[in-house]
Amino acid sequence: MTNNNSTPLLFYDKGTICIKNSRLIGIPGTTIDERDKKILRAYASEYDSIIQYLNESDLEFVDNVKQIIPSQAITAPDLVLRDYQEKAMENWSKSSMRGCIVLPTGAGKTVLGIRAIEQINSSTLVVVPTIDLMDQWTQVLKKYLKYEGEETNNISYKENSNSSQTKIGNLGGGRDDIQQITVATYDSAYLRAPYIGNQFELIIFDEVHHLPAPGYRLIAEQFIAPYRLGLTATIEREDGLHDLLPKLVGGIVFQVGPQELSEKKHLAEFEIERRQVELTSQEQKDYDDNYSIFLSSLNKLGFRYPSMHNLKRLIMMSNKNKIAREGLLARNKANSIALNSQSKISELKKILTENKFAKTIIFTQNNKMVYDLSDKFLIPFITYKTTKEERRNVLEGFKSGKYSTVVTSRVLDEGIDVPDAELAIIVSGTGSGREIIQRLGRILRPKKDQKKAKLVEIISKHTRETNTSAKRITAFQKSTKQSFDANASYETSPGWLSDQ
Asked: Domain limits at 419?
């Protein structure tokens, strides 16, 4: 079809779809371009809806939007899916190949991405949160995906096209290589989306709960990709922005929790134990004094009770208001006492002695405690400051058995492939359900001896930390209950939870 001055022309421009020469003001999802009143503009994600509307309206138009990367047929002959993974992909296919799949860490989310790539068999962008994950995805994709048939003439995007090994492109960490299958970090995908958003048919968002954040959501909005897959262990966000995911990627098409997969032997059986410790007399006095100052400050400022909303207000006021500043400092000091008490260190020593030969990961909320515990127990640590080479050495030593215990803050929660462990100890943490699910996931890979995995929380009594623990356990129970409605008993009396 040739274009003339009256035929609508569709083209891609910096993350948007433009419609030129159009009198069709009512096209869904479009608005008039303020810079050129003769052009309609929409986010690239509206592309399919626009094409469907034009076709159903039996209207002539010229479509110059797509510049899909030439792709050759690929297959994953060695990929075998478990029953729940097959069901997940079946549900995704029935949902027009759009939607999110929620599986615990260790349950095989990456293989679902591989099957989706094989199924779509066209250009694919995989978006991940970290460079480590980019490298991990790249290696797994190279392992499973094979070219099928003859090479295609794709000089623009491939080099050494006579090679039979599947080429995987990377965007991130100083790499800028686009192939028919490309793995990118969220940051790099955000920067490049306006320029490559019309080149991919399938986009996979690993750890998809990151996507709704302001900025990152533009990745989904600036790609025309009709096929979308979101993968995560914990889809809910505390800010509620997960409600945007059905629009950006698609709704939840499959979800299963760790308890059900443990019962079916796909993951290790597990238990969660809560150990409560008493602060020393001086610590308790200091905690009570500081928390009283915090509550008094709230009262003086007219805030009736402590809440996340009131805390945010207190933080905003603290720069200019002396009462707010004193209250905030007192709260932080009280929290530090509860999270880093000497009693916790004593209890930790006891737990490590009880589990002398268990491969153990210790989690804390802040790096200071990481360094303190590393020095006291002579164990290796990993923080965000740890270099890539140091981190690799620690994890390889952990995997080989050279180290039986590693201490970390939040670096190992997601984005790094952690060798098998059987014991996780939370010395301190937040009230986030996501956090406990991710940390539990680090010990759920099936054990050769069928040994049960164990997560232990150490909680300071008579502090707000008891509420924090209750909050994250409640969030975990909610997630578990969503996985299998038939087992409502877990909501009130989970067999995997014990107190000491």
From this structure: 266-279+341-499
Mean pLDDT in order along the chain per 10 residues (500 residues)? 68 94 77 85 95 88 94 92 95 97 90 96 96 92 82 38 71 95 97 97 96 96 98 87 96 91 87 92 94 92 81 87 93 91 93 92 90 94 88 89 90 69 89 80 80 90 88 73 34 44
The reply to whether 225 and 156 lie within a common domain is yes
Alpha-carbon separation of residue 51 from 10, 224, 352 (angstroms) = 9, 11, 61
Tokens 């995560």 correspond to: 232
Query: Whole-structure pTM over 0.85, yes or no?
Result: no
Tokens 């690239």 appear where?
Answer: 44
Here the tokens at position 365 are 């909320």
Q: Give the 3-state secondary structure percentages of the chain, helix then strand then coil, rounded to 5.
A: 40, 20, 40
Provide the edge-to-edge strand list for the sheet that holds 169-172.
175-177, 169-172, 181-185, 124-128, 202-206, 227-232, 98-102, 252-255
In contact, 127 and 184? CB cutoff 8 Å: yes
Please report the pLDDT score of residue 339 as a whole number. 87
Backbone CA torsion sign across 447, 449, 450, 456: negative
**How far is Cα 380 from Cα 361, in angstroms, rounded to an integer?**
10
Work out the angle between the directed axes of helices 465-483 and 433-441 (0-180°, nearest 10). Answer: 70
Statement to judge: residues 158 and 190 lie in one domain: yes
Cite the DSSP H helix spans in 28-178.
47-56, 83-94, 109-120, 131-144
What would the two tokens of residue 432 be?
């986030």
Cβ neighbour number for residue 462 with a 10 Å cutoff:
13
Residue 408, C-beta contacts closer than 8 angstroms, at least 6 positions apart: 361, 362, 363, 364, 370, 381, 382, 383
- Which of 303, 231, 265 has the alpha carbon at shortest distance from 448? 265
Helices 109-120 and 83-94 cross at an angle (nearest 10°) of 50
User: Residue 208: which of 173, 237, 232, 181 has the closest Cα?
Assistant: 232
Separation CA 18–CA 63 (nearest Å) = 10
Closest by CA position to 365, among listed 422, 307, 288, 435 = 435
d(CA 480, CA 446): 19
Supply the pLDDT for residue 495: 42
Query: What Å distances lie between residue 387 and 59, 263, 301, 361, 384, CA to CA?
Result: 58, 38, 44, 19, 8
In this prediction, residue 95 carries a pLDDT of: 96
Which structure tokens are listed for 286?
A: 């200091």
Cβ contact 268:446 at 8 Å: yes
DSSP 275: E
Domain check: are 128 and 80 in the same one? Answer: yes
Question: How many domains, the chain?
Answer: 4
Q: Please report, for the domain that includes residue 34, its CATH number.
A: 3.40.1170.30
pLDDT at site 496? 46
- For residue 88, the model assigns a pLDDT of 96
Q: List the structure tokens of 166.
A: 């599947």
